[in-house]
Structure formats: C-alpha cells, structure tokens
Amino acid sequence: MTGWKFIAALSIFVAAPVIAGAANFAVINATGLNIESLEIRRFGTAEWKPLSAKPPSGGRGQVDFSDPDCAFDIRARLSGGVDAVWPGVNLCEAKSVTLNRTASGALWVDYD
User: Fold this and answer.
1) Does residue 70 lie in a domain region?
2) How sure is the predictor about 2, in pLDDT bands with cuts at 50, 70 and 90?
3) Which of 11, 29, 66, 110 has the greatest count of CB atoms below 10 A from its CB?
4) CATH classification at residue 36
C-alpha cells in the first residue's frame, strides 16, 4: 500500500479526540427546603461562582454552564439559613443533578 493510501485508511479508524467537560444541566431540588442561592466551584479550589438557578423545594432550574473540568462542589443556601455543600459532583455528561438532603442533614446527589 502506498504511503498516502495507508494514511487515508488509517484516518478512517482514528477517532477524533473526545473533549470532556461540564455543560448545561438542570438542578432538581430534593432538599425539602427552598434554595435561596446556589454556587459552584471546581473541586479542590476556593473560588465560588454564583449560579442563576434557585429552584424551590421539589422544583427544577436550568443552569447555563460550560467548563473543561468535570468535578465540582455545589453549595446552596437553603431557607432557614441552612448551608449545604455537595462535594465532588461529576457534571460531565450529566443532564440533571438532583440535590438531596435528609432532615438530619445527610447529603447526596443523583444523576440523570
């Protein structure tokens, strides 16, 4: 096989690189309390950035977001002055993130 035919054939089998990262997602509030403010930061960093979504208890809000990283901390100020932080939330390929909280304060995230 000549050089250019080999390169052409090889290019068919070589996939383009996949660009990972976080993109727009929905936040579902399953905390039992209204979200008064919502913030995000890259996991392991100190700078919090506000998010526009503030869904009420049981509600859903859309977040317009784009970042090359996948792991983030999400912080919510809930009604009654309750603060909650969900650490290490994986936003790559997540269409929606459900923020859960029990009455005793246990936190977890469900993904869709």
Assistant:
1) yes
2) low
3) 29
4) 2.60.40.2890
